[in-house]
Here is the input.
Amino acid sequence: MRPITILAISDTHFARKDQELDPRIVDRFDAVDYIVHAGDYAHESLVETLASTGKFAGVYGNMDPFAVRDMVPEINSFQLEDVTIGIIHGWGAPDDLIRHIHPLCVDHGFDIVIFGHTHNKLEAEYKGIKYYNPGSPVDKMFAKENTFLILTVASKADVHADFIKL
Here is the structure.
């Protein structure tokens, strides 16, 4: 399999239509194969912007309005040869979030999962599934730092996460 690159973001919580992503994120759109948003856009204009790239896959989060929920599913995935990449936002208390979402990820046959909700970056493996949270590129209240993720996938065993601090 040719290595593919995924730009992943989550928890942008845009309150207004005129808000825009940090240029340091947007400037990487052309260089990646996929753009993933793991929920909590909070405004449908961001979904439209990401969808216009033709590289977008996303899910809605617990804070997304019905307009966003009509545009993206709760759980999403895409296949890269023998690797299934799942996308889910998450819910409830941020502690032990992977344990909460893991049964769903197993049921869907995910090998790699991109998730959000906690606003903090995370790379972990749990019971054979690799989990990545890109963090939030904008949150100043709950996030320890503002980040997004460039994930390079060459195979199930060969995955490299590069968290970019903003």
Observations:
- DSSP finds four helices and ten strands in the chain.
- Strands lie at 4-9, 34-37, 56-58, 75-80, 83-88, 112-115, 121-126, 129-134, 147-153, 159-165.
